[in-house]
């Protein structure tokens, strides 16, 4: 609720705010609180723009298992966001590389992301930037780890049915946001939060790169 009020205040101060948004279980209470503020006339999205972090490869926006459909259920269809201002990666695009380039151009045309909200994967990923020996700077096609596929099993029924690839904003795209708020809840993520905040900056813990950002906040329970 406190973060929802902070977002509403940012919208009031900058009506044309460009928001970056996550999916998953962690932000659901935030979206419910934002919808509640909107219903009470305390949040106005009419001039705002949104860019979501990621989408499953091969899953069209109309598929109820897509992140696009998830966001429509949680936020887009129940507040006054204009459809033309909602930006999303198309997982079913015939050319994934071209789709990622299109998304980067759209972010640039919008003037960049003002406020980017992130979730935190138990393995330290943000967006679908998975742990590895290196990270990709821009929006890109990526292979999901088994842990990430298991974490998304509820959308698809079984982990084995979760696509093994996705499209995601890259680390540079994320770090260029003017303000970043990372949400992490649950004792299972405590160790990862500690590595992110106190550990070395390493692609083995992609979220650790947030240490380099001039205006990054970590909200935990």
List the helices and strands and how they pair.
Elements: H1 2-13, E1 18-21, H2 28-39, E2 49-52, E3 54-56, H3 67-74, E4 86-87, H4 96-109, E5 115-118, E6 140-143, H5 146-151, H6 153-156, E7 165-168, H7 171-175, E8 179-184, H8 190-198, E9 216-220
Structure characterization notes:
The protein has 221 residues and is α/β, with parallel strands linked by helices. The chain contains 8 helices and 9 strands. It has a 6-stranded parallel β-sheet with strand order 4-2-1-5-8-9. A 3-stranded antiparallel β-sheet has the order 3-7-6, with helices on one face. Strand 8, helix 8 and strand 9 (216-220) form a beta-alpha-beta unit. Helix 1 crosses helix 2 (28-39). The longest helix is centred in the middle third of the chain and has 14 residues, at 96-109. The protein is globular. The two termini are 12 Å apart.
